[in-house]
Design brief:
heterodimer, A: 203 residues, alpha/beta, Rossmann fold, six-stranded parallel sheet, 9 helices, globular, B: 617 residues, mainly alpha, Na+/H+ antiporter like fold, 2 domains, 27 helices, 6 strands, 70% helix, elongated
Chain lengths: 203, 617
């Protein structure tokens, strides 16, 4: 059983129905630790040692956040700047994150088709997350495509929110138990593109 | 009367001319007074007579000085100093007495040799303390050690007065009347003498602790300043009389009274009232020492006296160095300690006189010794200067070495006030590597810092001399954390007037205090409790279940709002002032203004407007 760390970054949680629901869906899973960055560091003074220790203790590192300006909320950048130290995360002796699994859980305002070369937002989610792919590569981590929720700006129906929550829970449990086919998911655009086909049946 | 006024005129004029000249030449005021004494004394211009009487009268300056020293020392602090006082003071007196007596034993009978040893062991409280204060060394580690020794010596005078008559070898020349004018304790049997002495000391404690406050309050409420001055003088004089009556040193008695009153809220008032009298009396005292140098006697016995002076300074210095070694002082500390105390003291004059009347020492022994002691006192400020010069050279060498290694420019910061706010502020600055100079009139909570080698001054920083000795002329920033707005204002004005380049940051007790400070052109003002209030509010929001980041942001937004509306409130407040309103009314109106401005603000709206944007299309 792998241990899962979810670094949660949302500066105005009470306004985000989907992120609250997603978080609730995985919070009680055994082996999962939720680390709320804005709540723990309201003044952005990140406890680097604590964060590094959390990373070291877990095998799967997830960042759950809304997509702001085609990127992440500010504290996630601060987290990267401070926690990913040379000699720890990267460099010839920086092997602390080596072979750990990394992915993002993104709630995007626009609909899926707007994230396309010809769409309103010009770039695909894969392109927009390229800096995280590069980061994962530098830190010798295994990057897998993000779990994406689209159309959050319009407000999602209860039905859709429940659906995404279930899918998220399913994905996290599968990753924890090692039943998710990593090689196959790397071919997909999104982690939740076709979840059932990449989860091995254990029974 | 005219005779008296003429004498007074000569003394004051001599002081007014000699002291500024001496200070300009970097000699210090003590040397200036001594020189003035020599010039107007019987051996140059011969303008004054009755030097002995004047010296005797102005010895009272020493008494006042010890009262002032006591005022700056709280009982708790004095208790902490018991080891240096008894240890250092004791070993200095014992070592010096042993060494001097042994040497004198080659020339004199053992009783006389012992008496000379005892008397020579004393140093000059007046000259040394005055010089230390002038150079701002009082609160440094060596300053404390020096003071401890001086205090022990003043205490030692009492047993010496008891011991000396037992050493009598020559026939008593005159009966002498060293008893008090009021009442002679020596007519009482021994146990009653002890009882009366204990009662006298106890009454000082009672007076200081319980009676003084209502008395001073009653006097202060009259608002007539000179009555307070009179009461302060009466206190000091009265205690001296009481101490003399019971056969104790008046200096010791007033010192005790000072210590007892160190906690009193009237301390500063007493200090500033007694200070000018002390200054004048000491000045005249130093002049009379200069004038009493008997040059014809010195001329006749030049070699003998020179020999005694050199021996006196050398032996005392050696005993002090040994004391320093016993107490493991650092090298530089030890050298100041030894130089500072290597002279005879004014008590020697008293004790020599006493020995003469008691038939302990003959004139032939006393006269050259008195001259030698006076000369050594004259040399004391010069030795100080020599020490300063050599240590400054050393420091220069040290500095160049240190700056090579460290190469970081230290900011010069003064913190005025080290109370509840100043303590944490100081800790914070120190944690960032800034080593502030701290000035406070409350010694207890800064004792720790002094142990860590920080520069700490006791006293009233609204006094220019203290501000100067804290280094205001080279400092970059003055942080004022005094809660009394009147004092803060006085300090701001003083600093702006004398050190226009000094930056100022001030803590204000409340909103109206901050308006007062804004009137003086201060821009960096923080209201004392504001930060804590908002932080506590933030904690409260969290406890009520608010998201910590939201609570934090609301606190930040509120703080910013408050700063933004501040100039507006200030303007409103000042306009109101045109029509007179009572303090109470003003407070409520301030509250109303603040509250209504708060209500109209849109904190919640700006809190997370950015993150509630509707679909960008």
């Amino acid at each position: 059983m792998h241990k899962v760390l979810i670094n949660f970054a949302h500066p105005a949680k009470k306004h985000s129905k989907i992120n609250t629901a997603l978080r609730k869906a995985i919070e009680d899973i055994e082996g999962v630790t939720v680390n709320d960055l804005y709540s723990n560091y309201p003044d952005f003074l990140i406890d680097v040692k604590r964060e590094q220790r959390l990373c070291e203790e877990n095998d799967i590192i997830i960042f759950q956040h809304p997509l702001y300006w085609y990127s992440t909320p500010a504290i996630m950048k601060e987290w990267q700047d401070l926690v990913l130290e040379h000699g720890w995360a990267y460099g010839s002796e920086g092997d602390a994150l080596k072979d750990k699994l990394f992915f993002q859980v993104i709630s995007a305002g626009g609909d899926e088709e707007t994230y396309h070369k010809d769409g309103y937002n010009r770039f695909t989610i894969k392109e927009l997350t390229s800096s995280y792919q590069a980061t994962a590569h530098l830190c010798k981590m295994t990057w897998i495509p993000p779990f994406c929720v689209f159309g959050a700006h319009r407000g999602l129906e209860e039905e859709r929110v429940r659906h995404f929550s279930q899918e998220y829970r399913k994905a996290v449990i599968a990753l924890r138990d090692g039943t998710l086919d990593i090689r196959q998911v790397r071919q997909d655009k999104y982690l939740n593109e076709d979840l059932d086909s990449i989860i091995r049946k254990t029974d | 009367m005219e005779e008296f006024l003429l004498q007074l005129f000569i003394f004051l004029t001599a002081a007014a001319i000699a002291v500024p000249v001496a200070k300009r030449l970097g000699l210090g005021s003590v040397l200036g007074y001594l020189l003035a004494g020599i010039i107007i004394g019987p051996f140059s211009l011969s303008l004054i007579g009755h030097v002995d009487e004047i010296m005797h009268f102005t010895e009272f300056g020493v008494v006042m000085m010890l009262f002032l020293v006591g005022l700056e020392l709280k009982p708790s602090l004095l208790w902490q100093m018991k080891t240096p006082i008894l240890g250092m003071g004791g070993s200095q007196v014992i070592l010096t007495t042993l060494m001097v007596s042994t040497l004198a034993f080659f020339f004199l009978p053992w009783q006389q040799a012992f008496a000379v040893g005892l008397i020579i062991a004393l140093s000059s409280t007046a000259i040394v303390l005055q010089t230390l204060k002038e150079k701002g060394l009082m609160n440094t580690a060596p300053g404390k050690s020096i003071f401890s020794v001086l205090l022990f010596q003043d205490l030692a005078v009492i047993p010496m007065l008891a011991l000396l008559p037992l050493l009598a070898t020559v026939a008593i020349q005159d009966s002498g009347d060293h008893g008090s004018a009021l009442f002679d304790i020596h007519s009482l049997p021994g146990y009653l003498q002890l009882l009366v002495t204990v009662l006298a000391i106890f009454s000082i404690f009672l007076l200081g602790r319980y009676a003084s406050r209502p008395i001073f309050r009653a006097i202060a409420s009259t608002g007539v300043r000179e009555v307070f001055v009179a009461a302060a003088l009466a206190l000091v004089v009265g205690i001296s009389l009481l101490m003399t009556a019971v056969g104790l040193s008046p200096a010791l008695g007033t010192f005790l009274a000072g210590v007892v009153l160190a906690d009193s809220e009237y301390r500063h008032e007493l200090e500033s009232d007694i200070e000018p009298f002390k200054g004048l009396l000491l000045g005249v005292f130093f002049i009379s020492i200069g004038a009493s140098l008997d040059f014809s006697l010195i001329g006749e016995n030049i070699l003998l006296i020179a020999g005694i002076v050199v021996t006196l300074i050398a032996f005392k210095w050696l005993a002090l160095v040994m004391t320093g070694l016993i107490f493991k002082m650092a090298k530089r500390e030890r050298s100041l300690f030894a130089i500072a105390l290597a002279q005879g003291g004014e008590f020697a004059f008293v004790l020599f006189q006493f020995s003469k009347t008691q038939g302990v020492l003959p004139d032939t022994v006393i006269e050259p010794l008195i001259s030698a002691v006076a000369i050594s006192m004259f040399l004391a400020p010069l030795l100080f200067m020599a020490y300063e010069k050599s240590s400054a050279d050393e420091e220069e060498k040290d500095d160049s070495r240190e700056s090579d290694n460290i190469g970081h420019t230290g900011h010069k910061v003064i913190i005025a006030g080290f109370g509840r706010l100043g303590t944490d502020l100081g800790r914070f600055l120190i944690s960032t590597g800034i080593r502030p100079v701290i000035v406070d009139h409350d010694a207890s909570n800064i004792d720790v810092l002094r142990k860590f080698g920080f520069e700490v001054y006791y006293g009233d920083i609204t006094r220019l001399d203290l501000l100067e000795s804290a280094g205001a002329s080279e400092a970059e920033l003055l942080i004022i954390t005094i809660s009394d707005v009147e004092k803060s204002k006085a300090l701001v004005q003083l600093a702006k007037k004398h050190y226009p380049k000094l930056k100022i940051a001030v803590n204000a007790h409340d909103r109206s205090a901050s308006y007062d400070l804004m009137d003086l052109g201060v821009t960096q003002i923080r209201i004392e409790t504001f930060g804590s209030a908002i932080n506590l509010g933030q904690d409260s929001l969290e406890l009520l279940g608010y998201d910590p980041y939201e609570a934090y942001k609301m606190g930040r937004i509120f703080k910013k709002k408050d700063r933004d509306i501040f100039p507006k409130l200030y303007k409103m407040h000042r306009e109101d002032e045109a029509n007179y309103i009572s303090m109470y009314q003003r407070h409520t109106e301030d509250l109303e203004e603040t509250m209504s401005l708060d209500r109209n603000s849109n904190d919640i709206d700006i809190l997370d407007k950015a993150w509630r944007a509707k679909d960008p299309r």
